[in-house]
Amino acid sequence: MSDMKISLPDTATITITGQTIDKLIRAGDGDAALLYLYILKMDGQLTASQAAIELNKGKGWIASALAVLSRLGLANVDNTSSISTDEQKSPLEEPRNYSIAEIKSELAAGSDFSHVVNETQRVMARILSPDELLRLFSIYDYLRLPVDVILLLITHCISESRKSSGGRMPSVRYIEKAAFTWEREGLFTAEKAEEYLKKLDDIRDVRGMIKEKLQIRGREFSKTEAHYVEGWIKMGFEAEAVAIAYDKTVVKTGNLAWPYMDSILKNWHKKDIHTEEEIMAAEGKRPPLDVKTGSTEKHGKPNRSEMDRMTKILNKIKET
Predict the structure, then answer these.
(1) For residue 35, what are the contacts with CB-CB under 8 A and spacing of at least 6?
(2) 156-167: pLDDT as tens digits
(3) Which residues contact residue 89 at a Cβ distance below 8 angstroms, ignoring those fewer than 6 apart?
């Protein structure tokens, strides 16, 4: 990309000290920077509910971003729930506990929350307890997830629980925990939630292939093993590359030594090597021949040198 001059349109001026800008840049936390700018824009006069609505975020997101600002020394929270930056002060309300009376009033009013409750009780085939209603209302009111996103979340949690627990329904506490993850991921539309679920499915497919390559059968990955595998997937390794690292590990150590295999893959990652072909090329080896295509490349795409070799053989046969 060629150099280009970037300028900002005329707008209201907000002053931030250079020291503050340096802290925000070094932190590398966009959420904290966004909240900080919003606090400045509002001259410190805001509540968590107001910020959640205008920024299209949940109160949990705000609390997390505020914690970063506090750690950086850019915001102070006192016992009265007010916060201050190095430019001004701002009151920020604390998340409050909900009462059963509030839940009953919300249900009686026929709000969107009543639809969430009815649908949740329908798919779980039971009546929710008062504690479960409070947790569900927290997802709806505190995290401010839209109704369609909440219903996608519940459907996803039911599917995951049935897969991992032999058909059992998830608890509402399990759903609540997942909701906080979705809120942190910024899944405030059905489209973003569906993209997130598609990404999870893709990761699950790669995990399954890696599990097969490592010859792990009859059990799931342990917590430590899953940590390694998820790290490799995030680095961009395909299952075949992990299989090569596994083979090298077994030859060298005599068993599946996870730290050793991890060191091999991290070394390849530093060299930007993530596929079977790239590994073979880096080691000066020819990729294995595909018996179906007669090619050393995948997906039936012919390799030019292999095609030339086959052409010469055919020409010799014709000459004789």
Answers:
(1) 51, 55, 62, 65, 66, 69
(2) 999 989 887 788
(3) 44, 82, 83
